[in-house]
């Protein structure tokens, strides 16, 4: 049991809102004889796309593929972000940290009955190397080879202790070589997915997906027979939860403790788990004027973080300037930044612009005769328009700068962000450990505007950042990692590749009328947040039918 963040139910931030229009009650959503768990998805539009090619280039894909395809490892956020086994049974680094030997579980089968072996792992890990456009997890290893049927060896160019968490990324899943190697992965949609996970696809409809629980899953027997996914909106979700039409969702609910939990504290669960990161303004540093630190500082100095969290109805969740959560990283934070939140400072912001030779004329940034009218990209499926307006108004009031809103639904938002087709973007930053939070800043992930980025969508390129990240990869000494992490914090604060707004949390909404055994923020070793792969699976394995 871990009990690290008991204050979580009074802090948080919105990540997901919704699409328009209520969803119909799913078939088989209730009743004593029904052994289905129903999940309502608020951030994927009103219909689903049947594309289970989890590693292909398409952005718009079917939801919850992590219940079919699994990673080698998992991150235990209840234990400080430690990487733990999943499909991998164990692993060891060589003395120099350049080779990782991974031992695999021997009891795993694909859902078509074939055995999961090292050949599948070599193929899966090799795909991002052979096809860089598929490297959506941002891999850092250089090669992988088979040692025997249950062992693989992964080689890095440099010592890479800190990069272990990439093998716990659900964006680097294991896929069956005997099926995938015969397909054109650029165009194949994998309509009948075969994975190692606890579910197989039973029925696909644009507004309801039904997954069938496997009876031969290596991780154990599932208590439910099916798992159903429906699209919904943020407003409709609240009514569905209160009526008991759905069992599970992942969405913020301001005042949820009063409007939902208080109506039936035993069955209405609204939970928050810190993920250590923040919602931030990400600067596109590959283009003017955001390649100028003075402009980045000026905009960071005029973000009204308190107004944003007040509108969220989550007071006290303003992010510190490092983007690292005080709750998770208290021992890693530079004391100069602990508990600090940047207040709006218009005078300092104007001084920064002046130092960079910038003026503002008729709402535009001007330098050397060139005018720049910036826009801010945000995900409209998250309901982020209100918060973008707060930033836009603050920049106008304090600087006279007119920033345009550029809301996009999820697919368009991620496309534009990855391609670098933005000026500013409201983006989530975070990860496992300090290195995991900051590794997206490595210039090794930088690609030209117009080419899809795996990480580093802000196109940050800074030799000092690269040097520190490389040093973190080369050591497993905690004291050295803390020192290096504080150097990175200073870069983020001083050079401002991104500017944190508010702390991020995983939001979990549960109606426990049909199912009990859910973790809580006071007692968990896995987070019941749909989309986290192994954590989602562990949650489902431990559920019990109420009254059974």
UniProtKB/TrEMBL annotation:
Ordered alphabetically, the record's keywords are:
Signal, Transport
Extract the GO molecular function terms from the UniProt entry.
Answer: peptide transmembrane transporter activity
Segments forming domain Solute-binding protein family:
83-434
Q: One GO CC annotation, please?
A: periplasmic space
Pfam families for the chain: SBP_bac_5 (PF00496)
* InterPro entries attached to this UniProt entry: Peptide/Ni-bd, SBP_5, SBP_5_dom
Give the residue range of the signal peptide. Answer: 1-23
A single Gene Ontology biological process assigned to it is:
peptide transport
Family membership: Belongs to the bacterial solute-binding protein 5 family.
The protein's name in its UniProt record: Peptide/nickel transport system substrate-binding protein
Print the organism lineage.
Bacteria, Bacillati, Actinomycetota, Actinomycetes, Propionibacteriales
């Amino acid at each position: 049991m871990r009990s690290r963040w008991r204050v979580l139910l009074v802090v948080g931030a919105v990540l997901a809102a919704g699409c328009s229009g209520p969803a119909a009650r799913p078939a088989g959503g209730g009743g004593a004889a029904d052994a289905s768990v129903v999940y309502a998805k608020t951030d994927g539009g009103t219909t689903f796309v049947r594309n289970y090619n989890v590693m292909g280039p398409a952005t718009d894909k079917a939801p919850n593929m992590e219940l079919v395809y699994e990673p080698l490892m998992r991150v235990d956020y209840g234990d400080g972000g430690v990487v733990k086994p999943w499909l991998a049974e164990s692993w060891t680094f060589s003395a120099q940290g350049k080779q990782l030997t991974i031992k695999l579980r021997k009891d795993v089968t694909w859902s078509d009955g074939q055995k999961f072996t090292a050949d599948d792992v070599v193929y899966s890990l090799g795909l991002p190397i052979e096809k860089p456009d598929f490297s959506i997890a941002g891999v850092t290893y250089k090669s992988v080879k088979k040692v025997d049927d249950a062992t693989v060896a992964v080689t890095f160019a440099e010592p890479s202790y800190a990069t272990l968490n990439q093998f716990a990324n659900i964006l680097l899943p294991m896929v069956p070589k005997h099926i995938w190697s015969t397909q054109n992965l650029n165009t194949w949609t994998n309509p009948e997915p075969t994975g190692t996970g606890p579910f197989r696809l039973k029925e696909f409809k644009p507004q309801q997906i039904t997954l069938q629980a496997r009876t031969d899953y290596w991780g154990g027997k599932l208590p439910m027979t099916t798992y159903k996914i429906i699209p919904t909106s943020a407003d409709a979700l609240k009514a569905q939860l209160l009526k008991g039409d759905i069992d599970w969702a992942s969405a913020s609910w301001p005042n949820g403790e009063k409007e939902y939990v208080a109506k039936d504290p035993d069955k209405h669960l609204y939970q928050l788990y810190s993920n250590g990161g923040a919602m931030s303004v990400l600067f596109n540093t590959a283009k003017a004027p955001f390649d100028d630190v003075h402009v980045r500082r000026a905009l960071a100095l005029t973000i009204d973080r308190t107004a944003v969290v007040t509108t969220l109805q989550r007071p006290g969740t303003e992010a510190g300037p490092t983007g690292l959560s005080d709750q998770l990283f208290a021992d890693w934070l530079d004391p100069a930044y602990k508990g600090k939140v940047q207040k709006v400072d218009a005078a300092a912001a104007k001084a920064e612009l002046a130092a960079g030779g910038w003026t503002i004329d008729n709402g535009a940034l001007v330098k050397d005769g060139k005018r720049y009218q910036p826009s801010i990209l945000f995900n409209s499926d998250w309901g982020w328009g209100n918060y973008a307006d707060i930033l836009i108004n603050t920049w106008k009031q304090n600087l006279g700068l007119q920033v345009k809103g550029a809301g996009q639904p999820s697919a368009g938002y991620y496309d534009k962000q990855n391609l670098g087709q933005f000026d500013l973007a409201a983006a989530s930053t975070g990860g496992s450990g300090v290195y995991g939070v900051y590794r997206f800043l490595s210039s090794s992930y930088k690609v030209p505007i117009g080419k899809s980025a795996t990480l580093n969508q802000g196109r940050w390129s800074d030799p000092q950042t690269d040097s520190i990240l490389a040093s973190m990869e080369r050591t497993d000494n905690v004291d050295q990692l803390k020192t290096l992490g504080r150097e990175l914090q200073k870069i983020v604060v001083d050079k401002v590749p991104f500017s944190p707004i508010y702390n991020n949390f995983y939001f979990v909404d549960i109606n426990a009328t049909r199912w009990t055994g859910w973790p809580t923020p006071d007692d968990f070793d896995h987070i019941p947040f749909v989309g986290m792969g192994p954590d989602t699976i562990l949650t489902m394995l431990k559920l019990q039918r109420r009254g059974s």
